[in-house]
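Q: I'm writing up a methods section and want to include an example of the input and output format. Could you take the sequence below and give the corresponding predicted structure tokens, formatted cleanly so I can copy it straight into the document?
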Amino acid sequence: MPDQTCHRRWHPGECARVDDSDGAGVQAQKADCVTLTPLLRLHSAESQFMSYRIPLLTANILLGCTLMAAAVGAGDVIVLKSGQKIEGQVLKVQPDTVFVDIGIDVLRIPVDQIESRTEEQAEQSVEAPDAVASGIYMKADLPERTVKELVERFGEGVVRVETPAGLGSGFVINDRGYCVTNYHVVEGQRRIGVTIYYRNLNGDFERKSIRDVRILALNSFFDLALLEIPAQQNMKFRTVYIASDDSVREGDPVFAIGNPLGLERSVSEGIVSTRNRNMKGIVYIQTTAQINPGNSGGPLFNMHGEVVGVINMKLTFGEGLGFAIPVAYLRHFLNNRDAFAFDRTNPNTGYHYLDPPRRRNPRQPHEVLRERSADDSAADAEASSSG
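A: Here is the clean output for your methods example:
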């Protein structure tokens, strides 16, 4: 069957028809003017499906053909489990459905029928966001994605923060290694390290422990801290984006990435229970996403992949009662970081740990203790036989 192609401009309110070999047609209408390119091949056996708005996969009208986006702009490539490929702009993502604009209409694609999804031009637009005036964190107009896609993309920006007193979580906000965490995670500490999880050339996660992390700013009232991770050779820091407004509302889905109880790169999902829970004069975001010790300092993301809060506590003996510092406080802290700068010359700003003495005996401690125990037993036996 020859391709049916129309190259003229489509005006508002006008219907375009793409006829197949049997004379049946498909009508579609679009409010905006678009330039039509080769869009669709219809097999005659499937000509009874007259609308693009039918369930795409159950109808199986593609039959190995490719849908190309007619409008000029960013597009994703979606490969179905049946082998067909769709290219278009993703307008909205729901837990069970993806809405794709192919230029002349919008398709509804069930998520369980999608084999893979590859970002193309959209990836380039997201990677070049506009920086805020402070210049140390980034924001971007990101499309809505699923939790799986967002974790795949921004999970490397979440790190584990380690001190002699314990561990927590944090997230990198720029390519200079600036990292945000909670004040109580590094409170009274001077020796701080982080563990970064990054993908190697094979796509596998690897751990990289970094020591000598510097404290740049502290704010005990908002429970926020700003760290600086030393630059690493042959490794670029993966950053996250800060939300530019406080648009999160009750019922909005959110998710957290962190290291609860040391379980690295754990993801928990929930909703916003309330966005203005007052505690001791500070307003917190209350969420049903599971929060545990070790999540402190980690990011709370919305479904666009923007940080809308910093996880900092949960109610003891309660489930689904986690709290995060709103992004408004975070932006205020970062924009005024000079006022909260860490003073290294003050002897009260943290403990200084001396290095432990080196062992004189190269053998392992348990081997030395076992030998001593054997010698003591032999001495006791000899003393008993002498008596």
